[in-house]
Amino acid sequence: MTGPLIALMAKLISGASARWVDCQPNTRQRVYFANHTSHLDSLVIWSALPSYIRVLTRPVAAKDYWGKTRLRRYVAGRFNALLIDRRDIKVHQSPVDMLLREISTTDSLIVFPEGHRSAGEQVGEFKSGLYYLCKKRPDLEAVPVHLDNMNRILPRGEFLPVPLLSSITFGPPLALELGEQKVDFLTRARKSLLRLKDV
After folding, report:
1. How far apart (Å, rounded) are the C-alpha atoms in residues 52 and 107?
2. Sheet harboring 141-148: ordered strands across?
3. Right CATH number for 3-198 from 1.10.238.10, 3.10.450.50, 3.40.50.300, 3.40.1130.10?
4. Which residues have a Cβ under 8 Å from the Cβ of 172 and sit 6 or more positions away?
5. What is the signed CA dihedral for 112, 118, 123, 126, rounded to 10 degrees?
6. What pLDDT, in 10s, does the model give residues 123-147?
7. Strand, helix or coil at 167?
8. Residue range 72-95: average pLDDT?
9. Calpha distance 115→86 (Å, rounded)
10. pTM of the full structure
């Protein structure tokens, strides 16, 4: 399977329609940050991007899931995922530094600041990774992405997706402000994502 074929399959399974609200597709480097309810989230966001942006965008995904079987590793490779080992994080091997090395000066990222999947429609508190990405690379635009109905397509504990309609809303970019503290930035970023739920 090729990347475009995987993107097409993800669109068919999710039935996802993408909306851009006060934001336009752009090849500049960005960190797309989204709520997280399904193992398919990263693949669905990636597939919703225009192809010329998709080739420059790398989803960050859990190694314990996407690296578990040969098929998952193959699919992850086709959509250019960066697999993070959530169970063996070392202080001197920062995932943030690794991500920034991998994207260099060209690629964008898809991340999930909650750090884990939520059980329902609630969005958990954001962990610090998004803040440090924006602090170390202030030129990156942080774009909130709200996923709706994804938790019903591949519910927790299920292995096969159930085709349903879902939606993806990309919101206005934000950046870390000069002197802005971690808690303030993460709170602002989370609120920007939550606002998209009612747009």
Report:
1. 12
2. 17-20, 167-170, 141-148, 30-34, 108-111, 57-62, 82-84
3. 3.40.1130.10
4. 21, 22, 23, 143, 144, 192
5. -40
6. 889 999 999 999 999 999 999 999 8
7. strand
8. 77
9. 9
10. 0.85
